Every structure is written in structure tokens, then in C-alpha cells.
Amino acid sequence: MRRTPALIIGGGPAGSAAAIMLARGGVAATLVERRTEPHDVVCGGFLGWDTLATLERLKLDIFSLGARPITRLRLVSGRHVLEVGLPRQAAGFSRKSLDAALLSLAGAGGATVRRGFAIRDVDPATRTARLEDGEELTAEGLFLATGKHELRGLARPPDFTREGAVGLRTVLRGGLQGKPLDGCVELHLFDGGYAGLLMQEDGSSNLCLSVTKKRFSRAKSPGALVKALKDEAPLLGERVGHEDERHWQAIAGVPYGWRADDTRDGLFRLGDQAAVISSLAGDGVAIALQSGISAAKAFLRDGPSGAAAYQTAFSRQTKVPLGLADLLRGAAERPLSRPILMRLAAVPGLASWVSRLTRIT
Ligand SMILES: Cc1cc2nc3c(=O)[nH]c(=O)nc-3n(C[C@H](O)[C@H](O)[C@H](O)COP(=O)(O)OP(=O)(O)OC[C@H]3O[C@@H](n4cnc5c(N)ncnc54)[C@H](O)[C@@H]3O)c2cc1C
């Protein structure tokens, strides 16, 4: 059995942010990521101004890597289109590039990054993690950053994930029909979900959908869902076109609204393991980065005993953005409240004010 001061499980934004900050504080963490290569994940690729500020703090300049500036929000419901300015500049950037850049920053800063190794289970009492090949790692500080994936020994209560949403993602290449997308994040609202579309660094467009389990089960496949939406969301149908062989990534059981209120000594839950905001708000990456930074600071200051105070404070910090994002999602998903939401969004300054409240600062 090997011992390490800090073990981070998962190399998404949350795990990398923790590794970067621990290394800056003089703790050489070990980060274990099960994927061998940089990979895309089900994510809209929208990075709000709070995310950009945090990336700057971590000393990562995504615009030098080709991230696309976004200054406007386009809301689409049926054939009704509404465009409003964002309070501050945001960005469109693929998760493949973002996660790779953050992980390499963590490695360059002094963290030991082990790619292609999956943790099979954890004994929370001893903070011992077992890898697939049987190797064991015991840590003073265990940072759980596995995103939506549950880890044996530390899983969220099943009730929470059972009715969770379904997330889907694909890439649209070539020119899109309809209004230019550059500088814009486009949200198509429909019964039981929404689709988000933006341009990423290579000029392709990232299309992401979040739908209720019920809505997805009726359609049975992503392609069938988009086809079924052609009357409800005709402008989305025009954007997507008629290609049947499109490759989709999917994730089920997304537990929107989940917050971890407490923990045990030495166990720090980060990112989606700490708080899951409705993706409509486009702030999950900000939460992931901020949780990694806060947890690392707590560990550097108080050691393993800093976990409980960190977890409680982080849960409190995310309460309002999560609650408001859930409210917006509920209103956007329902046929009766959606027109009201569109009318409210047209009130000058209101959309901008609400989008500020769903940010984590
Ligand atoms: C449909 C949808 C759209 C979204 N759109 C946006 C958006 O536009 N903007 C935004 O800010 N947020 C968005 N989000 C939210 C955002 O994607 C997440 O909040 C964010 O990815 C959380 O980061 P994380 O580091 O906690 O987890 P993840 O990014 O999921 O990273 C977890 C990592 O852990 C690794 N891992 C898992 N299990 C193990 C294991 N056992 N051993 C080793 N490694 C493991 C995985 O391979 C992965 O690399 C969206 C979410 C959904 C569902």
C-alpha cells in the first residue's frame, strides 16, 4: 500500500483545479484519471465570466488557445427568437481542450498525474482507494472529483440520481442554416428540456441537450428526439439538418440540485460531487473550479480536519445559484410558463440580472 498526502480522483476541471492549488501550496498531490487521452464530455462548452475570472486566477489563458468570445444570449421558443446582451463577456470552448489544458497545468505545477488508471472503490474510513489492478493508495486528504460518476463506497443516495435528467452532445460541422452563431450562445427551449448551441475553437458547433428522463424515454434515441422536436423547435431542426448517422454522447441520471452538505474528516467532495447546478445556467465548470480551489485551500490551512467546514461553506455558497437555476429550468420546460419566461427575458436588464444571480462568485 502506498501513502500520499493528497489523492485526487478524477481529472476534470474540479480535480485539476485542486491539484494546481495544492501544488502551489507545496503539497504534491497524486491525481488519477481513468481516461488515457484528452476527451470530450457531455457539456455545452459555455464558460461564463465567473469561469473566465477563475481560469485567469489559475493562470490559464483560453483565448490564446482559440476560445470564442460570447457576448449575446439568443433564446428560441418555437419560432419566437429573442436576443439579449450578456452582462460580461463569456466564451465557447470545447471541454476536450479545456480539460487537457488544466491537467497539463497541474502536471507542470508538480502534481503527479496518472492517466489511464481508474479507481475501483474507496474505503472512506481509512481513505484508501483501490485501483482496477488492485494497487492501493492511502491519502491524508481524499478529493472526490469523479463528476457525475459514482464511486463504490462514496456514492450519492440512489433516490437522487434515479429521476435525473439525460444529457446529450454532438458536434455540428460546416455552415449552419439560420442566423450567424458567432458571438452568441443559443438556447432552444421545448417541453421537458432545452438545447444549447455555440461555436467552439475549431469553428465547429457544440450542440448539447438536457431532457427529462420521461421525454428521452418516449423518443428512445437522440436522433429520434431531435426528429420529434421538428414542430416544437423548428429552428433547432434547421440547425441540426437531416444527417442520420450523427455521433452522440449521452449521460443519464444527472442529479440537478444535488448538494453535499456534510462529509467526514479528510474527504473533500468537489465539482459535481459537491453541487450540481441545472446545466441551463451554464455554470457547472465555474462550480467545479471554485470547489477545487476552496477545498485545496482548506486542506492547506487545516489538513484533513478542514473537510467538514469546507463542505458546509461550499454547500451554502451554491444554494442560491442552484435554487434559481432549478426554478428557471422548471419554467423553461413547461408549456404554460415558457411564454411568461420569454416575455420576462425581454424586459430590459432582467435576463442580465438573473444570469448574474446564477453565477458562483
Ligand atoms: C447537458 C449538460 C450541459 C452542460 N453544459 C455546461 C456548460 O455549458 N457550461 C458549464 O459550465 N457547465 C455545463 N455543464 C456542467 C459541467 O459539465 C459539469 O458541472 C462539470 O463537468 C463538472 O466538472 P467535474 O470536474 O466535477 O466533473 P467531470 O468534468 O465529469 O470530470 C470527472 C472526471 O473524473 C474521471 N473519473 C470518473 N470516475 C473515475 C474513476 N473511478 N477513477 C478515475 N477517474 C474517474 C472522468 O473520466 C472525468 O474526467 C453541463 C452539464 C450537462 C449535463
UniProtKB/TrEMBL annotation:
It comes from the Bacteria. Residues 4-130 form the FAD-binding domain. One of its GO terms (molecular function) is FAD binding. This is Oxidoreductase. Signal peptide: none annotated.
